[in-house]
Design brief:
CATH superfamily of the largest domain: P-loop containing nucleotide triphosphate hydrolases
Shape: flat
Strand order of the largest sheet: 3-4-5-2-1-6
Helix content: 40-55%
Oligomer: single chain
């Protein structure tokens, strides 16, 4: 990724761009992409052999501006408009490493191409009608996906699932505008040719649809970022051991010295539904050391933001200690975890008492040493997280970014404002309908149906060069 590189200059489609599309560094292969009106002529000038047909492959030597041989590569040719960008495009698959792809890019720049800006290939695909903005964002989400759920949601968005839902809402709004326009055109009739109740029912239907779509933003956030699952407990009760056992690898230092974990350690556990963002925190206690106190404060902040809190304890005494330490601070579901079941057996009555102290969703006994109870614990966490996601169907279109949520919330406010004015009947219909026109504009901005240069700048500034 290229950090801090962004441009508010509109893309010049008359220019030919080039970039390495794979991360630099040691590896078997790299891919260099070149796209634009001169892509074929520039690439051809650097190659000994040229693919004779579109979507065909040739193995060719690549030469720099002085005709020096710099690599033997596989070349794939794409002809406009049947390419990712909708332009003439060439992909040169080079050997990997730091030098080879860089020299190939330099050879193409020397013949007239320029280095692509972050996301410029995808941006050109949007300008040329190959993708809409929501689909372009889905490509970024797919590249950034840290779980199967995030991958699946991004693929559905790339396939146009969210775009089709937004366009359907836009069409319903335009249909409602048409009803009002027809009503305005016949003012001589007492009730107009369209019954007011029909317009109100149509507005109510759109409000309901927007509310349902907006409600998916919580699930979309969980899928994208992962549900925050915080391990909280007193020092030395086995939080780090449990963290390592759940993650499946040694990510946290495990010792017998209280206060070892001075900061939060995170890992993502992939699940079939919502990924779990597991966080091991510093032991919660009255710390005198300033550094350790900072660690405790970090722990408390994570507890306040958690989707689920795992209250870890190794005895009845530490359970009671945590119930007092976290009193009034817990706003999320709690699962009480007895962490050392291999050392001391825990009865069902003890677990019930532990859960009662926190009004917990569940109380379980596990052993990080033997692995006993880890499977049921993960299943319980997933169940509690799914309930917190309001049972949204992750196979349905989801709002996965703040830009989406903000746009749909604004659209909902506008339709509600129209409905209120229509019910009151004190404002002329053309004035009330302004809210519907604004809603249509918001949805068009969201999907990129109109010229929204600022929106495109915001979307693509986070993209990789070469994508």
């Amino acid at each position: 990724m290229v950090n801090g590189l962004e441009s508010n200059i509109p893309v010049d489609l008359s220019e030919t761009i080039v970039a390495q599309a794979t991360p630099p560094g040691r590896g078997a292969l790299s891919i260099v992409r070149i796209s634009g009106p001169e892509a074929h002529s520039i690439a051809r000038a650097a190659l000994d052999r040229w693919p004779e047909e579109a979507r065909s492959v040739a193995v060719s030597n690549v030469r720099d501006a002085s005709a020096m041989h710099i690599d033997q590569s596989v070349v794939i040719r794409y002809d406009a408009p049947a390419s990712f960008t909708g332009e003439d495009l060439v992909e040169i698959i080079t050997h990997g490493g730091l030098v080879v792809a860089t020299t190939v890019v330099a050879a193409l720049i020397a013949r007239g191409a320029r280095v692509a800006l972050p996301g410029e290939f995808t941006r050109r695909a949007v300008f040329n009608g190959k993708l809409d903005v929501l689909q372009a964002e889905a490509i970024g989400d797919l590249v950034d996906a840290r779980s199967r759920a995030a991958q699946s949601v991004a693929l559905r968005q790339l396939d146009g699932g969210l775009s089709r839902r937004v366009l359907a809402l836009r069409d319903e709004l335009i249909g409602l505008e048409a009803l009002i326009a027809y009503d305005i055109d016949f003012p001589e009739e007492d009730d107009g040719p369209i019954a007011p109740a029909r317009i109100l029912a149509a507005a109510d239907g759109i409000v309901t649809a927007l509310e349902r779509l907006l409600a998916t933003s919580r699930t979309g956030e969980l899928v994208r970022e992962g549900a925050l699952v915080v391990l909280a407990g007193a020092p030395n009760v086995g939080k780090s051991s449990l963290f390592n056992a759940l993650v499946g690898e040694a990510r946290a230092i495990v010792t017998d010295i209280p206060g070892t974990t001075r900061d939060a350690i995170e890992a993502v556990i992939d699940t079939a539904t919502i990924p779990l963002r597991l966080v091991d925190t510093a032991g919660i206690r009255d710390a005198l050391d300033p550094v350790e106190r900072l660690g405790v404060e970090v722990s408390e902040s994570y507890v306040a933001r958690a989707s689920v809190v795992l209250v870890c304890a190794d005895s009845e005494e530490t359970v009671v200690h945590m119930s007092r330490a976290l009193a009034g601070r817990l706003t999320s579901p709690v699962i009480v975890v007895r962490t050392k079941a291999d050392i001391a057996a825990v009865t069902a009555a003890e677990l019930a008492r532990d859960g009662g102290l926190f009004e917990a969703a569940a109380a379980l006994a596990v052993s990080a040493e033997t692995g006993d109870g880890l499977g049921p614990l993960l299943s319980t966490i997933a169940h509690v997280v799914s309930e917190g996601a309001s049972q949204q169907d992750v196979d349905a279109p989801l709002l996965t970014q703040e830009r989406h949520r903000y746009a749909i919330a604004r659209a909902l406010d506008e339709v509600r404002a129209f409905r209120a004015l229509w019910v009151e009947g004190e404002i002329p219909a053309p004035v009330a309908a302004v809210h519907l026109r604004e809603t249509v504009r918001i949805l068009e901005d969201l999907i990129g149906s109109v010229d929204v240069e600022d929106v495109l700048d915001e979307v693509f500034r986070r993209f990789c060069v070469g994508k």
